[in-house]
User: Fold these one by one.
Assistant:
Number 1:
Amino acid sequence: MVAGCDPGSGDGEVMVKLVESKWAIIPLLAGALALGGVAPIAAADEELDLSSIEAIELIAPEVFEGSAEASVSVSDETAVEVLDEASGLSVSVPADAEDGILLEGKEGFELRIDLPNASGAGDAEEVSDGIVAFDNGDGSSTVPIVKDGGSVQIITVIDGPDSPTRYEYEFSVPEGGAMVVTESGAVLITDRNGDYAAAVAPAWATDADGNAVPTHYEVSGSTLTQVVGIGADTAYPVVADPWAGIQLFTGFKRDWYNGDRRYSAWVTPLGAVVLGGGGGVGGYAAGQLVFRGAGWDEWKTVWPAITNKATLQQQYNCHVAASLYGLPFTKDYNLERFRANRSNWVDNVWNHQCNW
């Protein structure tokens, strides 16, 4: 049996709940504070004197999970550069905030993200291993964190009540393409044909007491604005972010199984957001379309010969559609060439679990 389809394996824990887990942490933390009688970190009218990296470590340490290994060179034009060998995607964080962040894919596609308030920001300053921060000079800081799989989480640290509450990011949307906020709150970027190009995970924000702060995205042309709903009870600092990326799969691997080729890859964390409903206005159904199109294209780019037996794409489609049929969402896909073609794989799917 393919490990990725085994509902009894540990991978079953990475169900579509994975998509929700990052944002679920926020209200759970607030609830724990209330139920456990733990004293708040800061009173609403108090501002903690923390550096940007200290604020993130205190308020939202989960954002460091899956951080890519990187070195920092603030004296160069590029302060942080990461090549994700598994996906072939590179991410570059500039030394000068006005130069923007650049994501470059295998097929030559580039996604540039201009940072908020960059014209007034200072140069990149190393604040942790592989991480730099920009002091925006307005009571906020920008801290881009490059993630495994070739995505980037652009953290904003909001210092106090006089800081901005709107943060604009200019995206290099493909010519003729579009950027839209989906029903899930995620943002989908498409090319001139309406096909998937990139995505941004739903907005979130947390204050110094672990309370969720209302926030959402607004889109105007190629500008994405995160609006943070600061209130009278907000404890500072506040941490918020857009998390953007291109790649749906990473960790491509080919080996032998049962006398024939086996092809494997992992859904990126951002890809899980797309598949789980962030991929279009139609929610989960639209996410399915993105994966059947752009997702399968990623596999074909790595292995053009993967189209030489129908069972491989049939197994892939079964993995993509797993949750539609009550099967566990699996983060790792294993496609085995020795298996027979099965155009009617939906029949008896609960029993064969994509392994017929």
Note: The mean pLDDT is 84.
Number 2:
Amino acid sequence: MLHSCIKDQSEGYSGDKVPYGNKTRTKIEGVVLEYGTRKPLANVMVFLDETHYAPFSGGGTFYPIDTTFTDTEGKFVYDFKHIPDEDHLFWDYQVRTEPYLYYPDEYEMESGYQYKNKELIVEPYSFIRAHIKNVNPFDDEDYIFVSIGGATGESFKGRNIDEINIFFLKGNKKIKILTRLDRNKIETEKIDSIYINGHDTLDYDIFY
């Protein structure tokens, strides 16, 4: 990671960014927080990504060029000399983190500026272990659709359904559970909501 002794130019500044290093350098000071609790995450890897692309090409693909780790307060700093844009080639940069058992977050920067107190907020994995069982079968055309947490959902058909399914979710939030049942040509729909903590696994019965 490249550091600099360039003076902090943000004194008295209250906006999103301020020109930095005569716009030949880019600096970002950020923190990685857990969604819902705002708990700072220590010793988490933060990537500095770069991409380049031709004008009117629709952009390029980011690839990592450096890594650093958050401190005990979840904070990190990048201070680097960026590649300036040219007439035929543009360069962009972002910071990104993908902590273990969290969904990733990233922030794209405009080169030549200093950014302060930028938050990367990562949502923790959570799981629901759903027991789906047809306890009142009518015939082999019995059908139920299950969607948990706004996911695409899964369908089950038959009189002998008795399955355990694991649904991957984002924790520290309230989620909706939708079931849509079609039995004996009668359709019924039910919506339930539950709160799930980060990194938790909840058991949930869907008996129909």
Note: The chain has two domains: 18-122, 125-207.
Number 3:
Amino acid sequence: MWTFQDAIRAGAGSVMCSYNQLNGSYGCQNSKALNGLLKGELGFQGFVVSDWGAQHSGLSSAENGLDMAMPSSAYWQNGNLSLMVTNGSLEQSRLDDMAIRILTPYFRFAQFEPGTGMPADLLALHELVDARDPESDKVILQGAIEGHVLVKNTNNALPLQKPKIVSVFGYDAVAPARNTPTGGLFNKWGFGLENTLTVPGLGYFNDTYLGRLFLSNEPYGVPVPGASYNGTVITGGGSGAVTPAFIDAPLDALQRKARADRSIIFWDTNSFKPTVNAASDVCLVFVNEIAAEGWDRPNIVSTSDRYQHKDRVFQLTNPFTRPTQHPTTSSETSPASARTPKS
């Protein structure tokens, strides 16, 4: 429980209960976990919220520690929760406790008046609330740097030593063509998948299909995104995805560095079998792998191909170059590996 204890000591206002069962009892109605350990031993005074659709009962979940059901509740709605109090099934003190726990973090953390903050419709006219803190910039950058894994560094190719000619290839080297809010509950921008326009074996990837995958309304084994062929990956997909204020893609950073080092930089991010300038000192290939909440990743796209789309893996025409795989979690620093041409 150390992780939870540290979070509560740091002042967490809410804890989410999970879909899975704990010792035979669903996490959102497990009295030992929620009442005994979390609210009892650890002294948690905030509210417990269900993961989306993780509530499996009405009275049991209320008695056993669930305070808020999301996104709605077939068990508590239409006055069912208050009816439990009226007919004596649920103590009035427990209903009061649920309300107090939900409101307490609001008054503890809210720095604005009710009615402001996240608007109901991002596309409607609204006042911008900028929650970014400049003090966090260094921590965010350091986290991105430490999140990279250098898989190979053959012949100490990295860091680059002011090469004269750099050639850049791959769909992950550039920012997506679009980064703007779109409407609808299930939309690719909000789920971090704006750079995923197609799915191998399907031919398209739209908001409707995203919603069906997310809600598990498609049978197991249907085509799902394994790579994002329309721009760099800056976040994992799903309800916890990041919608950035800006995107600093690999090619953007490389061009700034090329200008500073007086290097020449060529690029082709559209072709899957690009022509390579044989005079290049360095060739960098950026590909990606995408994972999202709602489905399992089909395969590691850059090395295997379940849907036989081998044109999706770069086959450089220059025998002296080898692919470089870009990490899926950041786009601001060096690629994971690189090999320079041999003379």
Note: The first helix runs from residue 2 to 9.
